[in-house]
Amino acid sequence: MIATRPAPGPVEEPSARTGDRQFRVLLATMAAAVPVVIGAILVALISAAWPAIHRFGAHFFVTSTWDPVAGTFGVLPFIYGTLVSSALALLLAIPLGLGVAIFLSELTPGWLRTPVGFFVELLAAIPSVVIGLWGIFVLVPWVRTTLEPVLKSALGFLPLFSGPPLGIGMLAAGLILSVMVVPFIVAVSTEVMRAVPSGQREAARALGATGWETTRTAVLPYARSGIIGAIFLALARALGETMAVTMVIGNVPQIKASLFAPAYTIPAVIANEFTEATDDLYVAALIYAGLVLFIVTVAVNALARLLVNRAARGPSVIRE
Amino acid sequence: MGQWWYRGGATLLILNVALGTALVALAQTVTLVGAGATFPFPLYSKWSEVYAAERGVQINYQSIGSGGGIRQFIAKTVDFGASDGPMTDDQIAQAGGRVLHIPMVAGAVVPVYNVPGVGPGLHFTPDVLADIFLGKVTKWNDPQIVQANPKAALPSADIVVVHRSDGSGTTAIWVNYLSKVSAEWKQKVGEGTSVNWPTGLGGKGNEGVAGLVRQTPNTLGYVELAYALTNKMTPGYVRNKAGQFIPPSLSSTTKAMEGALASIPADFRVFFTNPDGKDAYPIAGFTWILIYGDQADPVKGKALVEFLWWATHEGQKYAPTLLYASLPKSLVTRIEQTLRTVTSRGAAVLP
């Protein structure tokens, strides 16, 4: 790269070039720090989890028993709980978040945008333990006495909504996670939609598009990659969230079709059991579970990125 | 401007002098570092405050959990460990020295419930408790429960069992009791700080279990006695070995220690659940401080043993106000003997 450059002319001061070079080295070091840290985490996880990896191997992924007394460990129900609660959260948060974002960017008068945006960002700033307490004292009773009975009477024939309404369980976890990730979707999506050049909107309008048609055909396709980025951020938050989830999910390692049933997630079991785990294999199994979470997160992100790349290959200009 | 500088310099000087004095003071006092169980933390921090004022010895205790306490104790990064469960033989072998378990206080674990129309003091027999937590007794009006509570208006509702989801000494005591009273529990589930629960929901911490029990009708859970008392939860009475249904309290917990005295081994490594004694509440356990029987540093060793002596004598008076059950005199006598065995460089630490 340096070789292809023209030789320094007489006007160029050598000190400026030295500064450039030093700056580049500095930035490269900073950029390298991220993969190095990730690599170090991975190495530390693998070495600390080694007794459990050696003992359980790949069976760890498909075993459903988590029995610290007998020393039998498997993370299948935890993987299930992590993925389903996050998926449920996104299912609820994406339409809601996008709705709010479209409203804020396309429909709100300017004077209202700032206060509403402020409240959305405030929601993102609430510590998760506080959201968890709100979950226990407000959300869970409401789910038990109102939401679950309604769902059960309307859709009780589906296995998804069967079983006793306890309030606590997968549904409550999905709801609380959606509350926590909505601000991410709203904040980022609003910004990218506001960044869409007004020429795009004006062109759609000039062709006779209505307000909704303008948003759908001119704004959303233009902002698509940014919106997908926002959803990634939300997904990452949902997968790793610990405190609020463990307070409302019921913490039972099982795989049940019903959303009313209690479940468990990987971050929750690590947070719950790590402090009092005395046995070496037990600690190793918990760290192995951490490693699995790492793998699951990377896999989900890679999968999502693959989908995005495929979607992004399509035309990003206005269709129709 | 000049004045500002001048004043700044003066402040700095004062700060310097103060720091110097503090450093000198620091060099003279002994600081003991400990880590472990969260359950006794309020008591240990009270002790630390009082002891620093009375004897000038700083106790720095970090409540990182029993598991972490035992690990740090084995790694010898702390002067003492603290745990709600005794160390296993393997762990003692890893520690590689004479390990002493010194009981500090005891705590009880209490069944709490929320059954609409049923007041406090529901009677639980050991069999019923085990069968409920095994998922075999599922209705509140099960004949076994009705038989022990002929006067209570028990509904035909499903029992919602609530247990701790986090590993804890509370769970260890609870499942140790169930293992003692039910052969089936012992064989199917066993005991530990976390177990593979046959039934029920998991709440995080005492507050998680309490929150679930308080809000959800027809629940049965278990919390620490101190937590049940301060939060005015409806406690159940558990039938003890002598056949009495005992209200959980600090005094019935101390009675349990007295009742268990004959069966407590010389090293104190025991869960004394289900003890003898007419007034003994049957679900209780010690919290221990872990020390090495041979102290490397004679100055620190002496300070540590003196602190433990103080804690098991004068320090006990702070226990009831913080809702811990104090040790009975008969047990303290035995602890004295153990503390006298601590040595440093071949000589006994205590005179």
From TrEMBL, chain B:
<protein>
    <recommendedName>
        <fullName>Phosphate-binding protein</fullName>
    </recommendedName>
</protein>
<dbReference type="InterPro" id="IPR005673">
    <property type="entry name" value="ABC_phos-bd_PstS"/>
</dbReference>
<feature type="domain" description="PBP">
    <location>
        <begin position="29"/>
        <end position="310"/>
    </location>
</feature>
<keyword id="KW-0813">Transport</keyword>
<dbReference type="GO" id="GO:0043190">
    <property type="term" value="C:ATP-binding cassette (ABC) transporter complex"/>
</dbReference>
<dbReference type="InterPro" id="IPR050962">
    <property type="entry name" value="Phosphate-bind_PstS"/>
</dbReference>
<keyword id="KW-0592">Phosphate transport</keyword>
<dbReference type="Pfam" id="PF12849">
    <property type="entry name" value="PBP_like_2"/>
</dbReference>
<dbReference type="GO" id="GO:0042301">
    <property type="term" value="F:phosphate ion binding"/>
</dbReference>
<dbReference type="GO" id="GO:0035435">
    <property type="term" value="P:phosphate ion transmembrane transport"/>
</dbReference>
<dbReference type="InterPro" id="IPR024370">
    <property type="entry name" value="PBP_domain"/>
</dbReference>
<comment type="similarity">
    <text>Belongs to the PstS family.</text>
</comment>
